[in-house]
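Deadline looming. Please check this record:
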Amino acid sequence: MRLEKLILANFRNIQSADLRPGEELTVITGANGQGKTNLLEAVWLLTGAKSFRGAKDPQLIREGQQFAVMEGAIFRQDRGEDYIRITVGTKESPRPGRTAKLNGADAGRASNLAGLFTAVVFEPGDLELVKGSPERRRRFIDAALCQLYPGYLATLRRYSRLIAQKNSLLKFWERTPGAAEMCDAFDADLAVQGEEIRRRRAAFLDGLAPLAKKNYEEISSGSEALSLCYRCGFETGGLAGTLAASRMADRKAGYCTAGPHRDDLELELDGRPAKNFASQGQQRSAVLSIKLAEAALAAEVTGEHPVMLLDDVLSELDPARQEYLLTRVRQKQTIVTACDSSLFHKAAGVMLKMDGGRLSEG
């Protein structure tokens, strides 16, 4: 997998940019607030996913404009070159939202491109994977699965809509004629979609866990062992019964209390919960191990190593972890942002600079 070029127009603070990354390392330097992360965000959007920063579509469009445009040429061994065009339009524009074209043909919603171009992003917020909320860890798993298995996105969307509908029913239960029958119908569909989500997540973690464990052993020189465990509130095939058993609790709470939207990924160090006992250094090692494992697993599943996007994470790592990360991404296309270019004085690659939304040679 390789990004050959990226052309931007009216994306955030970038009026126009033409990025030609190297085959391996590309470093984008500049002070904070100049647009370095915006550039990585634009590359990520070629995957068809939403912003890894949680931004809404209107926030992606340069102030005063109706559209932002991202055009990328990508190369895959199994397909050759493809040309992706993503357009983000305001609500007032002729075509609002994120839409896509593939090789000049209309592809509909940008999410329809999921799985064509794959990338793994590592940004400072990922350090919350250890001590952050369960929702943060679920988002990590689901974002990875949406790239690896495009059909997963449709399942996740359907499940989320059903949960929203059921929660609305539970909130207005007493005022809704036939509420019990409606809830039965919701639960029947939720059981189908939820079982598929559980199956995909569990299989993903079965592949991810040993890779992350091995990475952590290398980083920590075997001083402790990292393990990943998927905590699910129901056994395989048991979601329908769990939903039925939780009906009264749901009515009392006013929302659905059981299902994969309540699951968690638990990280343990030597059998102890990392969220309670991990030091800052151990947290960084764990997250680094997981992100590199994510990339390796994606390469196993798709046959193409994803493009690595590292957003100002080297400053969060000590020299030993910096060296480990840079060693592991050699011979893989990697785009890195950093305020301090001296971190790469020994690295060979393309050096660029971002200043006020303008990209130039570093």
Summary: The chain has a mean pLDDT of 93. The longest strand covers residues 2-11.
